[in-house]
Specification:
The protein has 378 residues and is an alpha+beta fold. The protein is 50% helix and 20% strand.
C-alpha cells in the first residue's frame, strides 16, 4: 500500500514538473505572438481534448483561424507545446515561430527551464522559511579532526573549495564527496579577511568524507525556540531565505557541469553521482515513503518532503534541458546563438539531422539506464 501510494505521488510530482515546463514555453510563445497549435500533458493516445478560445489569424481565403488544442494523454511521462513554425518553415505567417526574431525564439525555448527554476525557487524559499537551513559556517570543531588540525576556527565561513564556490551546505558535501580523500584548498572568510587552508578530509563511520565541524543553523518558523536562553538560536530572515533559495538553485545548476567535467576527465565519480532514470528516482521516492511509515513521520513533514522532491525535480529538469545535448532545449539554444552570430539560420536539414542523432542517443541511454535501474531492483 505504501509503495503504490508513493508511486502515485511520484507520478503526480512528475506531471506537475512537466506541466510547469511546458507552461513556460506556452506563456513565452503567447507573449512573442506565436500561435500554439497544441498544449499536451502526457504522451500517447488522447484521453481528453479541449478547444481553446484563442484563434490564430484568419486565413487568406477568409476562413476562421485555428484554435489551440489542450490535450491530456494516457502516459504521464512527458508533454509538449506544439508551436506553429517550430519544426517546419511556414513562410509569411506572422504567428509562426520561424518568422520571429532570434531574441524572441531564445526566450521561448528557454521559457520552459526558466519556469522550472521559478517554481523551484519559490518552493525552496518556502521550505527554508519553514524548516530553516544550514550554512557553511563553523559553529563547533571536532578536536583532532582534519579541520581542527589545519587551523579552521569557530566563526569561519567556508566560501570556496578548490576554487569552486560554496553557496549552500550541499555544495560543501558535494565537494567533499568528490575529493576522494585528496587534500583540498579551502578558502574561508574569517572576520572579513580571506584565509586559505589546506585540509585533507577523512572518512567517518558512514563512509562519507568530512573535515570535522558542525555548520551554523538558521532555524525556520516551525522550529521552537529552546527554553535555555543561553542556547544559540538564529531565525532565518526573509532576506536570508531569498539568498539561500537563490544559492540552492545555483548549486543545482553547477552540479551537473561539475559532474560532466569529472566524467570527461576520467576521474572517479562521487557517491550518488551516477545517472538515474525515472525508475531509479521512483525507487528513491518509494524508499522515502517506507522511511516515513517506519519512523511514523507526521502528515506535515511528509507534505514538506513532497514539496522538497517537487523543488528538486524542477531544478533538475530545468538544468537538464539547458544542457547542449541534441534534441534538448539547450542544443536548440546553441543553434539560435549560431544563427545570431552568422546572421542567417543553420540549414534546417542539418539541424534536423543533429536532433535526430540526439533523439536516438537519448533513447538508447534511457533504455540503458532503465535496464540498470531494473537490474538493481531485482
Amino acid at each position: 500500500m505504501v509503495t503504490a501510494t508513493w508511486i502515485i505521488i511520484f507520478i503526480l510530482i512528475l506531471s506537475v514538473v512537466i506541466f510547469i515546463h511546458e507552461l513556460g514555453h506556452f506563456l513565452a510563445a503567447r507573449r512573442a505572438g506565436i500561435f500554439v497549435e497544441e498544449f499536451a500533458l502526457g504522451m500517447g493516445p488522447k484521453i481528453i481534448q479541449l478547444k481553446g478560445k484563442k484563434r490564430s489569424l484568419p486565413k487568406a481565403d477568409g476562413e476562421e483561424g485555428d484554435v489551440t488544442l489542450y490535450t491530456l494523454r494516457i502516459l504521464p511521462i512527458g508533454g509538449y507545446c506544439k508551436m506553429r513554425g517550430q519544426d517546419e518553415d511556414v513562410p509569411e505567417d506572422p504567428e509562426a515561430m520561424n518568422n520571429k526574431s532570434v531574441k524572441a525564439r531564445l526566450l521561448v525555448i528557454a521559457g520552459g527551464s526558466l519556469m522550472n527554476f521559478l517554481l523551484a525557487f519559490v518552493l525552496f524559499f518556502l521550505l527554508i522559511m519553514l524548516n530553516g537551513h544550514t550554512v557553511a559556517e563553523v559553529m563547533h570543531l571536532q578536536t583532532g579532526a582534519p579541520g581542527y588540525q589545519a587551523g579552521l576556527q569557530v566563526g569561519d565561513r567556508i566560501t570556496h573549495i578548490n576554487g569552486a564556490r560554496i553557496g549552500v551546505f550541499e555544495d560543501l558535501h558535494f565537494m567533499l564527496d568528490m575529493s576522494g580523500g585528496q587534500e583540498l584548498d579551502v578558502r574561508v572568510n574569517r572576520g572579513g579577511e580571506r584565509v586559505d587552508l589546506q585540509i585533507t578530509p577523512m572518512l567517518n563511520e558512514n563512509d562519507r568524507y568530512i573535515i570535522g565541524f558542525h555548520g551554523g543553523r538558521r532555524h525556520g518558523l516551525l522550529d521552537e525556540r529552546p527554553e535555555d536562553p543561553a542556547t544559540t538560536f538564529r531565525r532565518v530572515t526573509v532576506t536570508g531565505g531569498l539568498v539561500a533559495a537563490s544559492e540552492t538553485i545555483l548549486s543545482h545548476v553547477r552540479t551537473p557541469f561539475r559532474l560532466l567535467s569529472r566524467l570527461i576527465s576520467g576521474q572517479q565519480m562521487p557517491e550518488g553521482g551516477g545517472l538515474m532514470g525515472p525508475i531509479g528516482i521512483a525507487e528513491q521516492v518509494v524508499e522515502l515513503g517506507h522511511i516515513a511509515e517506519e519512523f511514523q513521520i507526521g502528515f506535515l513533514d511528509q507534505f514538506l518532503m513532497i514539496l522538497s522532491l517537487t523543488a528538486l525535480l524542477n531544478a533538475a529538469l530545468g538544468v537538464m534541458n539547458l544542457l547542449p545535448i541534441p534534441a534538448l532545449d539547450g542544443a536548440r539554444l546553441v543553434f539560435l546563438v549560431i544563427e545570431g552570430i552568422r546572421r542567417k539560420p543553420v540549414p534546417p536539414e542539418r539541424e534536423a539531422m543533429v536532433h535526430l542523432v540526439g533523439i536516438v542517443a537519448i533513447l538508447a541511454l534511457a533504455v540503458f539506464i532503465a535496464y540498470r535501474d531494473i537490474a538493481r531492483l531485482l
